[in-house]
Amino acid sequence: MTPTTVLTIAGSDSGGGAGIQADLKVFAALGAYGTSVLTAVTAQNTRGVNAVLPLPPRTVTEQLDSVLADFAVRAVKTGMLGTPAVADVVAGAAKAGRLPHLVVDPVLVATSGHRLGVVAAVERLLPYARVATPNCAEAAALTGHPVTTVGEMVEAAQALTAGGPEFVVVTGGDVDADGESVDVLAGGGTTTLLRAPRVDTRHSHGTGCSFSAAIAVRLAAGDPVPVAVATAKEYVTRALTGGRGWELGAGRGPLDHFGWSR
Predict the structure, then answer these.
(1) Which of 152, 113, 116 is nearest to 136 (CA)?
(2) How confident is the model at residue 117 (pLDDT cuts 50, 70, 90)?
(3) Are 34 and 139 a contacting pair, CB within 8 Å?
(4) If you compute the radius of gyration of the chain from its CA atoms, what whole number of angstroms results?
(5) Fewest Cβ atoms nearer than 10 Å: which of 11, 126, 137, 151?
């Protein structure tokens, strides 16, 4: 049986825990065939990002055209876009209807604190998103208001849906809600709190990339957005749990994408 094809448009992580590398691992782990369009090359590891080289918009366009001309892509996720010019390329393809079930992970700042994107680049793409998945820091940057509590997450998710995305998930991995990890899903006229036990681990590198990639796989498979988001949250919780005892690198390590620690 031919697998479903999913596309990631994102930057490379030389440490393999986030970005294109993490996305392709998630696609494979969940049974999809992964294709990719690279927007930037980074020099990074578990301790931080040391350098970022954005690719020219023409190079991004050529990759995108090549993939879409030959593969029946069923869903697309974006990560690090790097520059407004690259975002314009991707937004143009989305506006033309070439990027089905678009999941926008607005990668603005790495876990290490290194700035990887600009708000203007992400804003170009939000009107075409089926789902946007900002974390609290990214939601704050996009709304211009602090997002440090579950209540503020709700407000941010609802405000961002007014900007174009059909659904917004504000992820709360950095907000300790009485021992739970709470994500807020807004869209379709409702707001839902998704809860899971908080995983005690420092190995969370690539969590946002993995979450959005998992949503894209489930949308490609035909799941409605609420089901896709809930399933993706369950997957990431398992991946965090599996990798919490690993010693890969000296900093924030990667997730157990393939369930090796079961």
Answers:
(1) 152
(2) low
(3) no
(4) 17
(5) 151
* Interatomic CA distance for residues 207 and 214, integer angstroms: 11
**CB-CB contact of 89 with 60 (8 Å):** yes
- Helix (H), strand (E) counts: the chain: 8, 9
Q: Render pLDDT for 180-214 as a digit per residue (tens, 0 to 9).
A: 889 999 999 999 999 998 898 999 999 999 999 99
Cβ neighbour number for residue 154 with a 10 Å cutoff: 18
Which pair of tokens denotes residue 176? Answer: 């300790």
Identify whether the C-beta of residue 182 lies closer than 8 Å to the C-beta of residue 175.
yes
CB 13 within 8 A of CB 19: yes
Among 114, 117, 190, 124, which residue's Cα sits nearest to residue 157? Answer: 190
Contact 147, 173 (CB under 8 A): no
| First-to-last C-alpha distance (Å) of the chain | 27
DSSP per-residue string spanning 46-59: TTEEEEEEEPPHHH
DSSP class of 177: B
